[in-house]
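Why do we care about 3D structure at all? Because function follows from shape, and shape follows, mostly, from sequence. That is the central idea of this module. The next example makes it concrete: a single protein chain, its amino acid sequence, and then its structure expressed as tokens.
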Amino acid sequence: MNKNVRIKGAAALVLSAALLHPQISDAQKKVQPKSAKTTMSKTSKTEQPFKVAAESFADLQLLRYQIPGFDALPLQQKQLCYYLAQAALCGRDIIYDQRGKHNLLMRKTLETMYSSFKGTKKGPEWDDFVTYCGRFWFSNGNHHHYGNEKFIPMCGPHFFQEVLFNCDTAKLPLEGKTLNEFWIETMPYFYDENFEPRLIDQRPD
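And the structure:
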């Protein structure tokens, strides 16, 4: 099969997942920044108002969409939608990997840090860390989803290191390295603006 066909097929399945059966990791489900706003869209006088705006952070706003008529579909068609969505989720790692060679490692690190940090999950630096996680998950990596420039955490490296060293380190992708060695290696991935500064750079200089 042609490589471009495979890529387009994966993209189509991902779109199916987003529309029909959105599902993300447990860590990502918990991200609800304080700045989130809710827009209400009334479907009828008797039904509960539908929440269009799910949450917002940085320059992003996540929206929900209704799928009228889905409940009336035959069971076989509902099952088809479900399995298409599951197939799309299997391609999730492919998208991360295509957008950066370190993205899978970074994503697993952030998910572990976010879900298992043993310290206090309050305060401006924690909020900045959560926002960075949300941006990373939304963009499938640490480059802006349309500007392609690298974005870095607003929380300082010392706080980031504190979260890293006080999470469930058994779930980190250390690959035989000590925690300190892992931090030294990965810190530029997150914080060095000159390390892979753009996803795509076509400037002649």
